[in-house]
Amino acid sequence: MKIVFATNNENKFKEIQSMMPQSIEIISLKSIGCHEEIPETADTIEGNAIMKANYVTLKYGYDCFADDTGLEVDSLNGAPGVYSARYAGEQRSSEDNMDKLLLNLENKKDRGAQFKTVIALNLKGEQYLFTGIARGEITLTKMGNQGFGYDPIFRPENYEETFAQLSLETKNKISHRGIATQELIAFLQKQK
What we know:
By secondary structure, this protein is an alpha/beta fold. It is built from five helices and seven strands.
């Protein structure tokens, strides 16, 4: 089975590609001639995932899936949430986003947070959603150099390390994206 993964984020593409069984080949946007930035203007994580999947299906005619992820911090009423990628501005800098979040949490005791990923799958004229959530907390400082985004400041429950300190294999088993992707894979394997 071949299916398009509607993302321009190479880190995300590699992470999900590493989880896919040999029976499922994911195709990049570049491979189908999609080089534009797909709009993400919905006000929910689900809405952005659906918007990206629908964009590729309607404009290019491919079955595809797209994801959107947000970091939801308890003491900030779920912020940065759907705005996680551009929390510190449109430049979408992970360093700036982490610095802003650490500053906003400076005097807060509650550092509980969760990553939430929603994958929207468009397959044979139907749409399906898969959700993964990883609970944890925001650390006081950045630790680790694996992963991307907020990984250096997010310590998942039952772990001493941040996502950025864990191996990709371990992270994929317990992460929000890993959980949602495993649901997607299980579903796709039943479609044959």
